[in-house]
Amino acid sequence: MSDRTDKNKTNRPRWRRWAVDIGLVFLVVFAVQAWQTRSMPVGKAPPLQGSLLAGQKVSLQDYRGKPVLVHFWATWCPVCRTEEGNIRNVAKDYQVLSIAMTSGSADEVSQYMRENGLDFPVLLDESGLLSVAWGVRGVPSSFIIDADGQIRHLAVGYTTELGLRFRLWLAGWQS
């Protein structure tokens, strides 16, 4: 009888084990995302204003009417470097306002942008005050703001171009 019980245990479907493992992975990913975004604002987007690298004054209010990606990043961040092509491509079709967090002077960030072929709008956050106001504790951090100034989606860490485009598209429908 002992042999028969052992044999039944080995014949259990493997799909159950796979389903449990996949479920655990999703649970961990969801829990980490919830932990990382715990201090980030929800609802109405906080004020955001300053001068772009080129010197023009800008405010989040200037982007009203269409969804906008507010993207916090840093020149020293390897994940941000991996993601910058996604942001550049999304900026061709959607409004993007990026914030370079503790990345050096305006000249240093401008040089970084030129060297990497990046041309989306950048606010400089040398002191980190904008990041604190938005609850950003890590980079990259992305906020999708709808046409009415409401935060619809947020993410910390690498986000695919398709993921950003989909969230921006959804924000256009949600407002």
Beta-strand level of the residues, as a percent range?
Answer: 15-25%
Give the spatial strand order of the biggest sheet. Answer: 1-8-7-4-5-6
Summed over residues and divided by their number, the pLDDT gives a mean of 87
The rounded Rg comes to 21 Å
Q: So what's the overall shape?
A: globular
Query: What pattern of helices and strands is seen along the backbone?
Result: HHEEEEHEHEHEEH
Taking the alpha carbons of the first and last residues, their distance comes to: 65 Å
Under the CATH scheme, which architecture of the largest domain would be assigned?
Answer: 3-Layer(aba) Sandwich
Share in helix: 40-55%
Question: What count of helical segments does DSSP give?
Answer: 6
Contiguous low-pLDDT stretches (5 residues minimum) are: none
- For the record, what is the CATH homologous superfamily label of the largest domain? Glutaredoxin
Enter the CATH topology name of the largest domain.
Glutaredoxin
Number of domains: 2
Structural class: alpha/beta
- Biggest sheet, open or closed, and with what strands and sense? 6 strands, mixed
The total of beta strands comes to 8
GO molecular function: antioxidant activity; oxidoreductase activity
Protein name: Protein disulfide oxidoreductase
Domain Thioredoxin: 39-175
Organism: Thiolapillus brandeum
